[in-house]
Write a structure and sequence with these properties.
242 residues, alpha/beta, Rossmann fold, eight-stranded mixed β-sheet, 6 helices, 37% helix, globular, binds S-adenosylmethionine
Length: 242
């Protein structure tokens, strides 16, 4: 038991300005996908992504907001002593599994229904934003990154693990060819997204990026990056620029 305080469970589910999707086949597949998600990732988690999550999240501090938490695979890796942990997830089937995992665990967190493109937090109020395997799926990653930058305090950090477009032209071509079917199978995931470039373009400063491989997964989603991006103080930067 890492901390007795964590025995007390606080799981609050709130709704925050999320569009509800049409019911039908897409909802059925969303529920099946949520059901299959943990088994599908099981081998990779044991081979390397579990360890990558643990190493990355040991750097979380203060008020921490996770985007697209899915079924909650990051939950057990958060360090003790965070001021607050808020798990956001727009997809109902995923959120139900997340809330259940939280209920069964000894961790304290709030669950919010929110999308990365519209975060329900005031400017400069968050110390750490966590995005693991999410920027591939959001419809408007540029908007999501603007939101991340808006809510982060000066000096606040985005911690990320994302699968990305391959640097190998041959694999990138396969990612492009299979992007449509993969997107339908994986609930909107884009296997060919150049996420590092998007992070750089939004004005966050990349301070550590490591390339790796998402093991035990199809080759089109294997190229992986883990890293940290800092929200430098814009006022400070303006005064340096003169
Ligand atoms: C591949 S799963 C990753 C789940 C979890 N972060 C993990 O590391 O296992 C992508 C998640 O992003 C969520 N998602 C989809 N669109 C989103 C959006 N616009 N904003 C935030 N999350 C979104 C999905 O519902 C899903 O839970």
């Amino acid at each position: 038991m890492r901390d007795d305080r964590r025995r007390h469970i606080v799981a609050v589910v709130e709704r925050v300005g999320v569009q509800t999707r049409a019911t039908g086949d897409s909802d059925l597949w969303a529920r099946v996908f949520a059901l299959l998600y943990d088994p599908f990732l099981w081998a990779g988690e044991r081979l390397n992504t579990g360890a990558l999550r643990a190493a990355l999240l040991s750097d979380a501090s203060g008020c921490t907001v996770e985007l697209g938490s899915g079924t909650g695979l990051n939950l057990r890796h958060y360090p003790e002593g965070l001021d607050e942990l808020i798990l956001t997830e727009p997809e109902p089937a995923m959120r139900a599994r997340l809330a259940r995992r939280l209920d069964r665990s000894r961790y304290r967190a709030r669950v919010l229904e929110a999308s990365a493109e519209q975060l329900p937090f005031a400017d400069e109020t968050v110390d750490t934003v966590v995005s693991t395997l999410v920027l591939c799926t959001v419809d408007a990653p540029d908007l999501a990154l603007c939101e991340i930058r808006r809510v982060l305090r000066p000096g606040g950090r985005l911690l990320f693990i994302e699968h990305v477009r391959s640097e190998s032209p041959r694999l990138a071509r396969w990612q492009d060819r299979l992007a449509g079917p993969w997107r339908r199978f994986a609930e909107g995931c884009r296997c060919n997204r150049a996420t590092v470039e998007l992070i750089r373009a939004c004005g966050l400063e990349l301070v550590a990026v490591r390339q790796g491989s998402w093991r035990a997964m199809p080759p089109i989603v294997r190229p992986l990056i883990t890293g940290v991006a800092i929200n430098r103080d814009r006022r400070e930067m303006r005064s340096v620029d003169g």
